[in-house]
Structures are given as structure tokens and as C-alpha cells.
Automatic annotation (TrEMBL):
Pfam families from the UniProt entry: FeoA (PF04023), FUR (PF01475)
Cofactor note text: Binds 1 Mn(2+) or Fe(2+) ion per subunit.
Main subcellular location: cytoplasm
Localization per Swiss-Prot or TrEMBL: Cytoplasm
Keywords carried by this UniProt record: Cytoplasm, DNA-binding, Iron, Metal-binding, Repressor, Transcription, Transcription regulation, Zinc
Name the record gives this protein: Ferric uptake regulation protein
Residues reported to bind Fe cation: D98, E117, H134
Keyword Isomerase in record: no
Family: Belongs to the Fur family.
Length: 235
């Protein structure tokens, strides 16, 4: 969300940081300037690399410290997505937003919904709860990744929270029989609970949980539940 030249932010930063007698003001101001122009939702390490490219050879510690100061004084905000490192973005006071995070390409999409905020207030109020802040992160698969994804995927490639129908086994009859003995058969709908990508996968069929090794999970082909605008069975 970078639609203005951040004149307000820069002026207030100058005023506040000088009034608070924060050291190395000029250096920190350079960091702010590049930060406001950069992509949003970057980690301290990613920003460090950007500053370096811009000729700002500050230490990692100085960069992190400055980002944290900017956060403290309300010029930056940081979010952790799926327990990752904090990702910084400018804090624009009158522009709140929430995030959608793609589990495949890690793209972060911002959105704002007045209806959603009103609903949250309403729900909080119904519990006699006074809402101060809220955080809404939606995890899923972005439209681009959905387009690139083929209809059948190995179960090993399905994401946590995803639902898919088992269509095919690649390991021959014996493998299929083995799966059957575990209660995993064609036409069954599975929901992925945990998938670390390389190792074991935990999934549920109805209310049964089962664990599949990654080798096996690559031999099970499944059709993910249709995403938006993508009807089940369409090409
Ligand atoms: Zn994506
Ligand atoms: Zn954001």
C-alpha cells in the first residue's frame, strides 16, 4: 500500500525522533526513506539486503534496531505469518488492512473489509467484549498458483487445511491394498491436518486421523477441492 509519497510520515518521523533525541538520526532517516519505498512485508534480513543495495551499509543490528524503533513510534508494523520472522511494513495510520497469505508462493495480499470489521465489533459486543485490535490472516492458495496447479496432485503436495479426493494410487495393487488396510481408498475425501513437505503427513478421513510417510504420500494422487472460479471437473 504505497500510494502517497509519505510526506506526513517523514515529517512526523523527523519531529519525533529528534524530540526523543534518538541517536544517528540521519542514518535512521535514510532507512525510513528506503523502507517507505520498498516492497512491504519484508523481514529484517530482506530489508538489510535492500539497504545494502541502496548503498546503506549499516549493520544488521542497526537495521533491526531502527525497524523496532520505527515500530515503537508507530511508523512500521510487523506481522508474523505462520510463526515466521516478523515482516515489516509501513504503518499508515488511516489505512488498516488484513492479509491473505499464499501457502505455495508465499505471496501476501492485502485487503480491507468494512463489513468484516463491523461484524467483528458486533460479535465482540455480543460477548460484552470491547475490541481493541484484531488480526485476520487468511491462509490459502492464490489465484495464480491455482491456475498453475494441475487437477491431480500427489497428496504430498496438498497444504494444511486443504481437502482433496483420492483418485489414483501409483504404487500398484499391493500399495493400494496396503492403503486400503489403513482405510484409505479411492473416492475418499481427505483433509490435510499437517504437512511439513518433506516428512510425514497427517490427514483425516471423516473423523479418523492417519499418518502417511512422504514416500507414500507422493504415490497417492488426489484432486484438490475446487477453488474460486474453478469448478470441480473442469479443465
Ligand atoms: Zn501463490
Ligand atoms: Zn500488510
Amino acid at each position: 500500500m504505497r500510494m502517497n509519497s509519505h510526506i506526513q510520515e517523514k515529517e512526523q518521523f523527523k519531529k519525533l525522533f529528534q524530540k526523543e533525541r534518538i541517536d544517528r538520526f540521519e542514518d535512521r532517516f535514510k532507512i525510513l526513506d528506503v523502507f517507505l519505498k520498498s516492497d512491504t512485508h519484508l523481514t529484517s534480513d530482506e530489508l538489510f539486503e535492500i539497504f545494502k543495495k541502496e548503498g546503506l551499509g549499516f549493520s544488521r543490528d542497526f537495521v533491526t534496531e531502527t525497524l523496532e524503533l520505527m515500530r515503537f513510534y508507530g511508523f512500521a508494523q510487523a506481522n508474523r505469518f505462520q510463526n515466521g520472522s516478523p515482516r515489516y511494513e509501513p504503518l499508515i495510520l488511516d489505512r488498516r488492512h488484513d492479509h491473505m497469505v499464499c501457502a505455495k508462493c508465499r505471496k501476501i495480499i492485502e485487503f480491507h473489509s468494512k463489513a468484516l470489521e463491523d461484524l467483528q465489533m458486533e460479535i465482540a459486543a455480543a460477548h460484552g467484549f470491547h475490541m481493541l485490535q484484531h488480526k485476520m490472516d487468511i491462509y490459502g492458495i492464490c489465484s495464480q498458483c491455482l491456475k498453475e496447479r494441475s487437477d491431480l496432485i500427489p497428496l504430498a503436495r496438498a497444504r494444511a487445511g486443504e481437502t482433496a479426493t483420492i483418485e489414483k494410487f501409483l504404487g500398484g495393487r499391493r500399495f493400494e491394498a496396503r492403503m486400503l488396510s489403513m482405510g484409505i481408498r479411492r473416492g475418499e475425501t481427505v483433509r490435510i491436518i499437517t504437512n511439513r513437505g518433506e516428512g510425514q503427513l497427517v490427514a483425516a478421513v471423516e473423523n479418523r486421523r492417519f499418518v502417511i510417510g512422504s514416500k507414500m504420500a507422493f504415490k497417492i494422487l488426489a484432486r484438490p477441492e475446487a477453488g474460486p472460479g474453478k469448478q470441480r471437473g473442469s479443465a
